[in-house]
Automatic annotation (TrEMBL):
<feature type="domain" description="4Fe-4S ferredoxin-type">
    <location>
        <begin position="181"/>
        <end position="210"/>
    </location>
</feature>
<feature type="binding site">
    <location>
        <position position="171"/>
    </location>
    <ligand>
        <name>cob(II)alamin</name>
    </ligand>
</feature>
<feature type="binding site">
    <location>
        <position position="160"/>
    </location>
    <ligand>
        <name>cob(II)alamin</name>
    </ligand>
</feature>
<comment type="function">
    <text>Catalyzes the conversion of epoxyqueuosine (oQ) to queuosine (Q), which is a hypermodified base found in the wobble positions of tRNA(Asp), tRNA(Asn), tRNA(His) and tRNA(Tyr).</text>
</comment>
<feature type="binding site">
    <location>
        <position position="193"/>
    </location>
    <ligand>
        <name>[4Fe-4S] cluster 1</name>
    </ligand>
</feature>
<dbReference type="InterPro" id="IPR013542">
    <property type="entry name" value="QueG_DUF1730"/>
</dbReference>
<feature type="binding site">
    <location>
        <position position="157"/>
    </location>
    <ligand>
        <name>cob(II)alamin</name>
    </ligand>
</feature>
<keyword id="KW-0411">Iron-sulfur</keyword>
<feature type="binding site">
    <location>
        <position position="250"/>
    </location>
    <ligand>
        <name>[4Fe-4S] cluster 1</name>
    </ligand>
</feature>
<feature type="binding site">
    <location>
        <position position="190"/>
    </location>
    <ligand>
        <name>[4Fe-4S] cluster 1</name>
    </ligand>
</feature>
<keyword id="KW-0846">Cobalamin</keyword>
<keyword id="KW-0408">Iron</keyword>
<comment type="similarity">
    <text>Belongs to the QueG family.</text>
</comment>
<feature type="binding site">
    <location>
        <position position="196"/>
    </location>
    <ligand>
        <name>[4Fe-4S] cluster 1</name>
    </ligand>
</feature>
<keyword id="KW-0004">4Fe-4S</keyword>
<dbReference type="InterPro" id="IPR017896">
    <property type="entry name" value="4Fe4S_Fe-S-bd"/>
</dbReference>
<feature type="binding site">
    <location>
        <position position="225"/>
    </location>
    <ligand>
        <name>tRNA</name>
    </ligand>
</feature>
Length: 311
């Protein structure tokens, strides 16, 4: 059986590489003992703001065996989204800023297809394996599993960081009922650096490794459905959808490399839009330009609200 575990693990990691994933790590499917009190404390302090869905399925977030019967392994995967061209390189400072992950196609669909293909390859080569794919839209603590499987460490900005490529990547999982070789967690390399904490425009990083989600620009511009609080006026630094500040200032992101996923290629129209273009955008244009974009999450109404708030 040990021979099979080794062979299966090697096969899965080579398939993940073939499908374009940046890296693949595997951990034992078990209750996340250390995460339980952290999550409970975070929720008790209302750091999820109006993201009430974070309170749902508390047990499932911590125990993968409640998501997949007889789960044995959590396969964590990273997919690079760092773009080859940035908004700032095209329109300099004359644009409302969009988070880099939203430059191209909606990652949920892109990654889900890759995960389906990976699970199919596992089932075709190994046999009767049951599993489920997860991409950021289910009660799974992505960063905790990725860190547990050695793909990086959770930094002071609460993002998963790696020494080789920084943090501009998506995290996804396959939870399977297959015994595999498990990877070991890596060490923390944030050291005494406080760049992300010092740079956060809204002081959302309330302490090293603790982010108050209800103060984050990404929360205000994407998750919040009501009006943005007036006390935040002038603090958004022109971010209209999401925010990359704590990643942009992170020294490890000096090592970010452009992704190799064609569907993440920046939408040229988005990159060339000036503040004037953003202000004048119509709902019809929004539907055409952002048809397959993560910006649909905010909807036209939400985007207009954000832009009006920035003026």
């Amino acid at each position: 059986m040990i021979i099979h575990k080794s062979k299966y693990t090697e096969f899965i990691k080579s398939e993940a590489k073939r499908l374009g994933f940046l890296s693949c790590g595997i951990s034992k499917a078990e209750f996340l003992v250390q995460e339980a009190p952290r999550l409970e404390n975070w929720l008790n302090k209302n750091r999820n703001g109006e993201m009430s869905y974070m309170e749902n399925h508390f047990d499932k977030r911590l125990d993968p065996t409640l998501l997949v019967d007889d789960a044995r392994s959590v396969i964590s995967l990273l997919l690079n989204y760092y773009p080859d061209t940035l908004q700032s390189q095209i329109v300099a400072t004359d644009a409302y800023k969009i988070s880099k992950y939203a430059y191209g196609h909606d990652y949920h669909f892109v990654i889900k297809e890759k995960l389906k293909e990976l699970l199919f390859a596992i089932q075709s080569s190994i046999g009767d394996v049951s599993g489920r794919a997860f991409v950021d839209s289910a009660p799974v603590l992505d960063k905790a599993w990725a860190a547990k499987s050695g793909l990086g460490w959770i930094g002071k900005n609460s993002n998963l960081l790696t020494q080789k490529v920084g943090s501009f990547y998506f995290i996804a999982e396959l939870i399977v009922d297959l015994n595999l070789e498990h990877d070991n967690a890596t060490t923390d390399h944030c050291g005494t650096c406080m760049a992300c904490i010092d740079a956060c425009p809204t002081q959302a990083i309330v302490a090293p490794y603790i982010v108050d989600g209800s103060k984050c620009i990404s929360y205000f511009t994407i998750e919040l459905k009501e009006n943005i609080p007036q006390e935040m006026k002038g603090k958004f630094d022109d971010w209209a959808f999401g925010c990359d500040v704590c990643q942009d200032v992170c020294p490890w992101n000096k090592f970010s490399k452009a992704n190799n996923e064609p569907l993440f290629n920046p939408n040229p129209e988005l990159l060339s839009m000036t503040k004037k273009d953003w202000k004048e955008i119509t709902e019809e244009t929004f539907k055409v330009v952002f048809k397959d974009s993560p910006l649909k999450r905010a909807k036209f109404k939400g985007l207009k609200r954000n832009i009006d708030f920035l003026q």
